[in-house]
Specification:
Elements lengths: L1 H17 L10 H5 L19 H17 L2 H14 L4 H13 L3 H13 L4 H14 L1
């Protein structure tokens, strides 16, 4: 046992001698000034919207929840996000028009109903949008 302990202590002492102590690296002031500027902040870039029907459906569901709670601005945001993820989703455009009507933004409601009619989707929703659009004019 003592031999093993003695061999271990000798081996560790020789290993410690082979390893140079870590050096502190302080860059000179000139090098610090020459560093590249930080890259553009990712959060400032505009959001990219790719076709994603699942995300659109999720936004419509959350928008419905917010609408029922009376949070019209939150519902408006969710429905508009849904239309960006799926520009052919008639339900999102119709609900966007409904929220715009409640917020007294009649021009926005007209635009939403027109887009709902132009999108190819459910005939019942398109017919409701036509009636609402005729009511607004």
């Amino acid at each position: 046992m003592k031999r093993w302990l003695l061999a271990f202590s000798i081996a560790s002492a020789t290993f410690a001698q082979q390893q140079p102590p870590p050096k502190k690296q302080n860059p000179p002031a000139a090098q610090a000034k020459e560093e590249e500027p930080p890259e553009e902040d990712e959060s400032l870039k505009p959001k990219q919207y790719a076709f994603n029907p699942l995300e659109a459906a999720h936004n419509v569901t959350v928008g419905d929840f917010e609408f029922k709670r009376g949070k019209l601005q939150a519902a408006l945001y969710r429905y508009s996000e849904a239309t960006k993820f799926d520009p052919g989703l008639t339900e999102a455009f119709f609900k966007l028009g409904e929220v715009d009507e409640k917020l007294k933004d009649f021009n926005g409601a007209r635009d939403a109903y027109k887009k709902c009619i132009d999108a190819t989707g459910e005939a019942k929703v398109v017919e409701k949008a036509r009636k609402r659009l005729a009511h607004l004019k």
